[in-house]
């Protein structure tokens, strides 16, 4: 039996470019290995990130919530569980995300322009947006869009 084809998992990367402007682009995680997570466990696809200290927060954004312009407090993975939200970056790009979508927020070290610094975000629709946020205790990168490709 041959090994199945490696999957790709899409994610949005909110990052800071070389001029200090936040941007966002869609990329894919593609470094999956087909292996078990322990002895005797059937193989599955895993794309392991570099080890780091992390904190997990479960978040519920109420209907109508808007987070004025701000940077992510630290590099963090955000997975949407229910509801919808939007993220608008300093370059004017607005992306809406819903259940099952993934984002890596890494817009630290932006430079204020026209009253904008970091990103603007808020809920979309008539239900709260629930998410799991995994903040990493790592140094943010600058101008490395899609660094997990």
Automatic annotation (TrEMBL):
SUPFAM superfamilies: RmlC-like cupins. It comes from Methylobacterium hispanicum. Residues 97-126 are annotated as: Disordered. The lineage of its organism: Bacteria, Pseudomonadati, Pseudomonadota, Alphaproteobacteria, Hyphomicrobiales. Residues 108-117 have a biased composition (Basic and acidic residues). This is Cupin. Gene3D superfamilies: Jelly Rolls. It comes from the Bacteria.
